[in-house]
Every structure is written in structure tokens, then in C-alpha cells.
């Protein structure tokens, strides 16, 4: 290792490296792979930046991967400032800037595709940084991280950066088994200490007592006791026609959090108003703050509530800066569209330091909020939990309105891991000496349960890796079927499955009972791969025996979707031939769109031609589903026509305001879904020469207005 190089790198920062940063960088300098698991805001990206530094020193390349485009954009700008524009590039699938630079920031999918395609861009690659590697637990996209890890050349050094996970040693042991010579570096301590509070009515209470970080504040216990007594008294009251004395449903679980916020009820008087909470934080010097509300509508309503209350959090200088930020991010959106997007309301709150941040917001608006918040100009952001997994937006304090959220099926208490992720945003390194996490009182809140939640650091990393049709043909094409089997046996999913088998085996030995059919638990990943290959072979995507990829298989290798096989079978059957560009966009949308569960409404296809093509696509889906059932494979989601009319109208040039009004979609959902259709059309253009011209024309018709502005976000 070159001590001089590490010292030179460290001197480029205005603060000394922490011990974990130094240890991890030393391992990289020594030629080792490294896994760094550290709390949010601890500075683990320093290790990734050291990989970039080492690549430049050695005249090699470094690919810095992130899970989302917004993070890629942010890292691209950060690295460009540090190393110069000529040395840094950006690749996000739809955007390419200086792609031949020695340091290239990209989404993880881009690197995966490069590996499968044996891209010449991989030549002279010395380092790969997998930022936010814990995303491998993501149900839809997590497999990509494992694909990269098990297929990346052993000659390339891997720097994996993860949030704090409780099984980091297990993950690191797997990395060491797959790639060898891997050092696991754990940082348990937050660089900025975090203090826990509860906001009840207009009072901010410490969660823990003065003498210990384990004893709950007696004042909070008294509040809970009085509330419990009030509930019992309320239950004894007669229930007359007027409704007086009726019980109020506060929800279930240890953390309360029911939807009923009846402030006339004595038991709800402790629930703080949002504006009162923000006023208290301002008075205590605890702004800027992220205020987590687990619904988009709740976030938007909170902003409106702040404005109605007359709360103003900025001075004249700050307002001028925020107005400039808003203008810069929206200057290319025409006035008619801005009106349709509700820009005036957004701007009025934004200039006073108040904003919402959620997936339903237009990307340009979100970018303005992010910049304003990072610069300390936006004082409070009402956000959904997606912000906790998104870009770098640390705050002085974090507020959680409830500790119960909808998980897609029911309302449930948040987990210790989710609590850690959410509150981890509090405390800005180099700015704050401490961070603050504030939980709003909800009827039924148990302070002891909250203390237990705040004290735990349980965030296990579980693999979501499952072979897909696209993965199968790419692996067979790249390394052959036998080598593909061997690689899949090395996946983290298989590693964890084997660990389960070993635990069961040990238990059965200790038990006098009959030993438990553990063989069925082994080779689960390879078994699924074999069943997938059987389906592909029967349809002609793999040759007899599954050892070679056919022309059809090569087409499939370019389509990445949950319904990848359905899309390619539709192309094969000629169902998409002869469609106009808007019709093609409408039909393709049904294979990539998935409506939010609470927003499912009855829709239809825009015209007869698209309806006929979609009916054929649905028929193919049913046929494939039967084939999958025969081979004991899960059935993919059914095609969803919920976005078909919307994207058709947009491609035909219909104004934004009319499209949003008729579809009842938020601007953010509309833009995101439109871009997903663009991605799918681009893949079809690459896969099928017959559809290339129509698909590309459709892309051009969709990529206009707000869909095209800030496209890289």
C-alpha cells in the first residue's frame, strides 16, 4: 500500500478521516475488496471516493453505481467538482455524459447490462463502487446487485457501501466466499449523537430520563397513565343518541396511531398540531427538519396547513434565493403547464421555507426542494418514507407523525430498521453537534415500546434474488449454462437458504423427533433457474439442452421487465406490428405499468387496434402462466391497462392539464410512468429491427414537455 497516496487523499478533506474510513481506505489501497456498513451520515461514501482517487492515480477506471438516477446525478456533480468535468462521466440508461471518462457514475442496471454485453467500456476497469448495496433486498430490483457481484471480474476491486444492517458479518462472509479477500468494516457509532423526544400537545419531552438512556422519562409514563384512565372513563359513559361517550377507534398496536384525530375528544388532546410542532422546533433552534408523514396527501395537506396558519420561516434574503432556485428548475416549463401543475401554491409555500417531497411531485419540483433543503433555505419538508432511502438530505431534526404505516396490505407498526432509517437523517455532520428525533404523540402510544424501538438496531439484509427469463438467457449467452448454474449457486440468496438448512439440520440432531425432506431446501436458486430454462427451451429461446441462446433468446436478453417473456412473445407473434406510435405506446404500457393499489380504477384501451393487440398480449400472458404453473414457477403480474389511454393521449399531443385531470394521476406518477414506457420502448427498439422505427418515433412523441424536462432525474 502507498501510505503517501492515502495521506494525499485524506488531505483533500477539511476533516480528519474516522477510524473506520481509514481502515476501509487502507484495505482498498492494499488491493482488497471491502464492505463498509455504517449509519446514515457517517461518511461511508468517502471510501467510494477513495476508489475514484485510486483509479485516477493508477490510470484505471472506476465505476460508481447508485440505485436511483437522482443519486447518480448528485454523485456525478459531487465528483465533477472534486476531480474536474473531464474526469467524470454519467450513464443512466437514457442519459450519457462523457461516458469514456476514467470515473463514470451510473445506475446499477447499466453496469449489469455492460457485463452481460461484454461491453468494451469495461476495459481497464479497476474499481467498482456499489453505493447503497442494501438495495439488494428490494423486491423488484434487488437481483441486479447480486448479478453484478457474482459476474464481475475478480480482477476488479469491489467497494460495497451499506446502511447499518444487523447481519453485515453474514453479508461480508458471503462476499469473501464469492470474491475472496474481502474486509468487513463496521461503524456502529453515529458521527452526530441522536437525541430522542416525544411531542405531546405543545410540549417537547425527552424520551429517556436524565440518569439513563434506557429509563423512560417518568413524565411520559404519567401522560400515558392519564390517557389510559381517560379511555377507561370514556368507556363507562352512557352511549346515547347524541353519540356522546362513544369509543374512538385509535388503531391497534403498541404505538397507537389510528386515523381518528378527533381533537374534541379528551383522549386526543395530546396529539400535537403540525404547525405547533414546527413552531416549537423553530423556537428550540431545531430546524431544518424532515417531517415524515406516511401518505402523499398528508404531506400536501400539511403544507397547506402551514400556510393557513401564517407560518413563515424565511427572511427576505432567503426568500430571494428560494425564488431563484424555483425559477431555475422550472424555467423550461410553459405557463399553461405550470398552472396545471399547481405551481403557484408550490411556489408560495416554497419561498417561505415550506415544502412537500414525495413520489407524486413533479421531478423539477422535487429537485428544487432538494436543493433548497441542502442549502438550509427550506426549513421543513413534509415527506413520505421514500425520502429515507433516497438522496442525501440530512436535517437537524426528524419528526415522525405516526409509528404506524400502510405496508401495502394493512396498517402495521414500523420496524426497528425502518425507524433507524427514518431517524438516521437527523444530525448534519460538520454542521450540527447533535441530531434530534421527535415522535408525535398518538392516542394509545406506549412510551416503553417507543423506547425499545429507538434502542434497537435490527435491520437484517435479506436477499430478494430470483432468476428471471432475461437473466437466464443473458447468463447462458455470457458464460454458458453450466457456469451459469455455478454462479447462481454463489448468490447471496442461496447462501442464506443454505444457512437455514444448516440451522434446521443442527436442530434435528439435537431433537429426539424424526429428522426433518432438508434436501428440498438446498439448491433452490438453481432449481428455479432449471425450470426457467425448461420454459425457454420449450418456446425456442434456448437450444435443445439449453446450452445455447437462439435468435429469439438474444431478443429476450435486451428486454428487462417483469413481463419480459410476454413482451417478446407478443413481438414474435406480430401483435405489435402495424400499430401507430401512440398505439404501440399504449399496448406496451400494459406490460410495464402497475397501478397503486388504492388508485385502481376501471380503464379501457384507447381504440380498436390497440384493444385487439392488448387482447392478444393478455392471451399470451395466460398461455405463459399455464406453462409456468406446469413448471412450478410463480405467475407474473397481469397486464394492467390503467395507463394506456393516458400515454396514448399524451403521445398524440394532448395538453398536460387535460391528461392529468382525466387520469387523476399526480404529476410525479404521470412522469414516472411515461418514462417507464419510454424505457420499455427503447428496449423493444434494440430488440426488434421490425419495430425499431415505430418504437423510436413513439419515444420521441412521449418525450416532450414535463416528461422531457429534467429527464435525467
Nearest-integer average pLDDT: 88
Total DSSP helices: 28
Strand content: 5-15%
Q: State the separation between the terminal residues, measured CA to CA.
A: 38 Å
Radius of gyration: 27 Å
The strands making up the biggest β-sheet line up spatially as: 4-3-5-2-6-7-1-8
Q: Helicity, in percent?
A: 40-55%
Number of strands: 17
Taken from the alpha-carbon principal axes, the silhouette is globular
Report on the architecture of this protein.
The chain is built from 28 helices and 17 strands. The longest helix is centred in the C-terminal third of the chain and has 23 residues, at 608-630. It is globular and about 75 Å long. Helix 11 (316-330) packs antiparallel against helix 14 and helix 23 runs antiparallel to helix 25 (644-651). A hairpin with a 2-residue loop joins strand 9 and strand 10. By secondary structure, it is of the alpha/beta class. The model is unreliable at 242-252 and 259-264 (pLDDT under 50). An eight-stranded mixed β-sheet has the order 4-3-5-2-6-7-1-8, sandwiched between helices.
Amino acid at each position: 500500500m502507498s501510505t503517501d497516496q492515502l495521506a494525499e487523499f485524506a488531505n483533500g478533506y477539511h476533516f480528519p478521516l474516522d477510524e473506520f474510513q481509514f481502515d476501509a481506505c487502507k484495505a482498498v489501497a492494499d488491493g482488497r475488496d471491502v464492505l463498509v456498513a455504517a449509519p446514515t451520515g457517517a461518511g461511508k461514501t468517502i471510501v467510494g471516493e477513495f476508489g475514484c482517487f485510486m483509479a485516477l492515480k493508477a490510470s484505471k477506471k472506476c465505476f460508481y453505481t447508485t440505485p436511483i438516477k437522482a443519486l447518480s446525478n448528485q454523485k456525478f456533480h459531487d465528483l465533477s467538482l472534486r476531480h474536474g468535468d473531464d474526469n467524470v462521466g454519467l450513464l443512466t440508461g437514457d442519459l450519457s455524459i462523457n461516458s469514456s471518462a476514467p470515473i463514470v457514475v451510473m445506475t446499477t442496471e447499466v453496469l449489469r447490462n455492460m457485463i452481460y454485453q461484454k461491453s468494451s467500456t469495461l476495459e481497464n476497469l479497476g474499481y467498482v463502487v456499489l453505493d447503497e448495496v442494501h438495495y439488494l433486498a428490494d423486491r423488484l430490483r434487488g437481483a441486479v446487485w447480486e448479478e453484478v457481484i457474482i459476474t464481475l471480474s475478480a480482477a476488479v476491486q469491489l467497494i460495497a457501501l451499506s446502511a447499518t444492517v444487523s447481519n453485515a458479518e453474514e453479508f461480508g462472509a458471503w462476499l469473501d466466499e464469492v470474491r475472496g479477500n474481502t474486509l468487513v468494516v463496521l461503524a456502529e457509532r453515529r458521527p452526530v449523537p441522536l437525541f430522542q423526544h416525544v411531542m405531546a400537545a405543545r410540549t417537547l419531552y425527552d424520551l429517556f430520563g436524565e440518569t439513563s438512556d434506557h429509563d423512560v422519562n417518568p413524565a411520559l409514563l404519567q401522560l400515558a397513565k392519564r390517557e389510559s384512565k381517560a379511555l377507561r372513563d370514556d368507556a363507562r359513559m352512557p352511549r346515547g343518541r347524541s353519540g356522546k361517550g362513544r369509543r374512538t377507534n385509535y388503531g391497534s398496536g403498541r404505538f397507537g396511531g389510528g386515523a381518528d384525530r378527533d381533537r374534541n375528544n379528551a383522549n386526543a388532546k395530546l396529539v400535537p398540531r403540525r404547525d405547533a410542532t414546527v413552531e416549537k422546533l423553530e423556537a428550540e433552534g431545531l430546524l431544518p427538519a424532515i417531517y415524515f408523514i406516511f401518505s402523499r396527501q398528508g404531506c400536501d395537506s400539511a403544507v397547506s396547513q402551514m400556510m393557513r396558519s401564517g407560518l413563515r420561516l424565511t427572511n427576505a434574503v432567503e426568500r430571494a434565493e428560494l425564488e431563484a432556485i424555483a425559477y431555475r428548475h422550472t424555467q423550461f416549463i410553459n405557463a399553461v403547464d405550470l398552472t396545471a401543475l399547481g405551481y403557484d401554491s408550490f411556489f408560495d409555500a416554497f419561498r417561505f421555507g415550506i415544502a412537500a417531497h414525495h413520489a407524486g411531485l413533479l421531478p423539477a419540483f422535487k429537485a428544487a426542494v432538494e436543493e433548497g433543503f441542502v442549502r438550509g433555505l427550506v426549513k421543513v419538508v413534509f415527506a413520505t418514507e421514500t425520502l429515507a432511502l433516497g438522496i442525501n438530505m440530512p436535517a437537524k431534526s426528524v419528526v415522525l407523525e405516526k409509528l404506524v404505516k400502510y405496508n401495502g396490505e394493512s396498517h402495521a407498526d414500523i420496524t426497528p430498521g425502518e425507524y433507524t432509517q427514518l431517524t438516521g437523517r437527523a444530525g448534519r455532520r460538520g454542521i450540527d453537534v447533535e441530531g434530534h428525533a421527535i415522535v408525535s404523540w398518538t392516542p394509545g402510544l406506549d412510551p416503553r415500546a417507543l423506547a425499545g424501538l429507538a434502542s434497537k438496531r435490527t435491520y437484517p439484509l435479506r436477499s430478494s434474488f430470483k432468476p428471471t427469463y432475461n437473466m437466464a438467457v443473458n447468463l447462458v449467452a455470457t458464460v454458458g449454462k453450466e457456469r451459469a448454474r455455478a454462479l447462481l449457486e454463489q448468490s447471496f440468496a442461496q447462501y442464506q437458504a443454505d444457512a437455514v438448512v444448516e440451522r434446521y439440520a443442527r436442530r434435528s440432531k439435537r431433537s429426539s423427533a424424526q429428522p426433518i425432506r432438508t434436501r428440498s431446501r438446498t439448491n433452490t436458486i438453481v432449481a428455479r433457474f432449471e425450470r426457467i430454462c425448461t420454459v425457454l427451451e420449450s418456446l425456442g429461446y434456448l437450444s435443445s439442452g439449453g446450452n445455447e441462446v437462439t435468435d429469439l433468446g438474444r431478443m429476450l436478453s435486451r428486454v428487462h421487465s417483469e413481463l419480459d417473456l410476454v413482451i417478446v412473445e407478443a413481438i414474435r407473434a406480430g401483435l405489435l406490428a402495424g400499430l401507430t406510435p401512440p398505439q404501440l405506446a399504449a399496448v406496451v404500457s400494459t406490460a410495464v405499468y402497475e397501478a397503486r393499489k388504492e388508485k385502481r380504477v376501471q380503464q379501457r384501451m384507447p381504440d380498436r387496434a390497440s384493444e385487439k393487440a392488448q387482447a392478444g398480449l393478455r392471451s399470451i400472458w395466460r398461455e405463459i402462466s399455464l406453462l409456468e404453473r406446469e413448471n412450478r414457477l410463480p405467475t407474473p403480474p397481469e397486464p394492467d391497462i390503467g395507463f394506456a389511454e393516458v400515454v396514448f393521449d399524451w403521445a398524440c399531443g394532448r395538453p398536460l392539464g387535460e391528461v392529468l385531470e382525466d387520469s387523476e394521476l399526480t404529476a410525479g406518477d404521470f412522469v414516472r410512468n411515461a418514462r417507464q414506457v419510454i424505457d420499455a420502448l427503447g428496449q423493444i427498439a434494440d430488440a426488434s429491427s421490425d419495430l425499431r422505427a415505430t418504437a423510436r418515433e413513439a419515444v420521441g412523441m412521449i418525450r416532450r414537455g414535463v416528461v422531457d424536462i429534467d429527464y435525467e432525474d
